[in-house]
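Chain and conformation:
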Amino acid sequence: MSPMRLIILIGAAVAAIAAAFLVRGLMQPQTAIEQPVVQEREVSETHVLVAKRDLLVGDLLSPDDFEWAAWPENNIVSGYKTEENDADAINELSGSVVRIPIYAEEPILPQKLVMKGETGFMAALLKPGMRAISVEISTESASGGFILPDDRVDVILTYQAQVAMAEAVIDRPITETILKNVRVLAIDQVFYQGDSESASQIGNTATLEVTPEEAELIAHSQRLGTLSLSLRPWSDAGDTGSRGARTDLLRGGSSPGNGVTIYRNGRATAGLGGS
């Protein structure tokens, strides 16, 4: 037999053996891949007091701002209010003010709130950039006592002015609105009515939330005459227009004591000595 034919036969034999091993491997059952076993474990839960919405600094809280939410017992942190141990927590925290922002569904921590009567309660109640100033009131100058904390009012100034009428100069009272849409923070020491059954609040002072310049205007106006508060309806409490601040009074413009105010056709103009 020639060498070439011998080589061909050997190659064919090797190929046949390899094919036999390949067919045998394909015919053997495949080893199944083991699936990981998922173990379920029951987790104990309790109910924790959380914020129902995002709470911003200065927000005055009511019962509608809280809710109970399921929470794993192993994740309870010291300070959390649980329904099991603090069932009346919603009523206790209502009327407090937010000191540090709290996000929706975040557990309530007392450290983030200022409670009624605590030091800093009024400062926490103020919106950023605003100031608190008190004005003297009476039943007559505060809508018969029906102005309550969180209402909106207009501030009216009444003062005596010299008015030129024909050839005579007489003294007569002048009344004008010096500030509009001002938030009432408190009546005396009452910050928040809550669920009070009282429909009126008689007090000696009303604390208003104003800008720094408006605070100067009110302080100046109290020296010029008498301030009265006019209650605004809730329908326009959100009006973001001009507050109509008579800041010209701070600069001496047409303020009483600067001369004679002359009235022509029902309109006041600066007279003798006026600016």
